Amino acid sequence: MSVYRLKITCNDAQLEVVAKSGRLLAYEIDRYMEHFLRCKIHSDSYELKKDNYTPQFQQAQQDSLQFQQPRQYAQEQVRYQEQPHYQEQPHFYEQQPVFEQPAYTQYTQAPQPQVAVQSSQAMPPQQHYEIPQQHYEMPQQQNNVMSLSEFLAANNSNDVFSEFIVSAYYLKRVLNMPSFSIKLLNSKFYPATGTLVDLSIVDDARNRGFVDTIEEDGMLKYTLSSSGESYFTNQLRG
Amino acid sequence: MAEYVFKMKKGEIEIELSSDDAEFVEQQLAKWREEILKKQG
After folding, report:
1. Contact A36 B16 (CB under 8 A)
2. A interface residues, B as partner, C-beta within 8 Å
3. What is the pLDDT of residues A37-67, one digit of tens each?
């Protein structure tokens, strides 16, 4: 759909008409064209015809006049005396009373800072306390727990199934985790092997009786059965 | 889409017409031309 735009600029006022109908815009153009042809160049006192005034044009003229006039609304907002909640507060900007200065200046001896002297005399000599430096030695973490990759390397794990059985044994006997989830197992299994254990391997081990399923806190978990431990001891232990 | 802009300025008044309807702009220009010539004559 076409868009028709008419912009009329006169001094500081500007009127812009945007329409989707060319017929409507042509009517507006005719109205202003009559004045356009009649107006004189370098005319200082030209006015539009009264019937050519549209609300938009009048509003534009008013807006342009507001820019030229000093802003009165700023003074109306700061009506200090008419707002009761300001009257209750102290007048911070009230003019301070001016004391009359004497004709002569009398010099008086300033009081000695006795309090400061007494306090300094009463203070004991400064003693420099040396804080004994204590050298804390961080206890060395005796991490003797074998990692899963080391445990896999120490045993006979040639395929993913045997690696899964070795890992289940590692969780149960080395890390003392009697049960584990697939997510927990893969968090140890993936860094060590670079692969993930899927449900098909777990189901295979469960069908062969090496893994039992238990339910803890509404979650299905797995544990290495006694048959699984025997399989590890007899077949996979290095 | 092409947009056609025609601007006339005389004294302090300036009229600018812009549209993507080429036929409409052409008709308006022809109309303005006739009126201007009629005014001069």
Report:
1. no
2. 2-11, 22, 25-26, 29, 32-33, 35-37, 39-43, 46
3. 776 655 444 445 554 556 666 676 676 666 5
Q: Cα(A99)–Cα(A80) distance, rounded to whole angstroms? A: 28
The complex's ipTM works out to 0.80
Interval A139-153 mean pLDDT: 74
Element (H or E) spanning A8, and its range? strand A4-10
Probe site for chain B from A2, A14, A43, A49 (most B CB atoms < 10 A): A2
Q: Which of A127, A138, A143, A191 is nearest to A163 (CA)?
A: A191
B17-28 tens-digit pLDDT: 888 888 888 888
Instruction: Please name the amino acid found at residue A41.
Output: I
Q: What is the pLDDT of residue A46?
A: 44
Q: Is the torsion defined by CA of A193, A196, A202, A203 positive or negative?
A: negative
pLDDT for position A43: 43
DSSP count for chain B of H helices, then E strands: 1, 2
Best interface-test mutation with A: which of B5, B7, B12, B35 has the largest number of A CBs within 10 A?
B12
**Rounded Cα distance, A179 and A226, in Å:** 13
CA dist A134 and A148 (Å) reads 39
- Across the interface, whether the CB atoms of A7 and B11 are under 8 A apart is answered no
Token pair for residue A62? 């008013």
Q: Answer whether B15 sits within 8 Å of A29, measured CB to CB.
A: yes
Q: Is B21 in Cβ contact with A22 (below 8 Å)?
A: yes
Query: Higher model confidence: residue A47 or residue B38?
Result: B38
According to DSSP, residue A128 is labeled -
Question: Encoding tokens for residue A71?
Answer: 């802003």
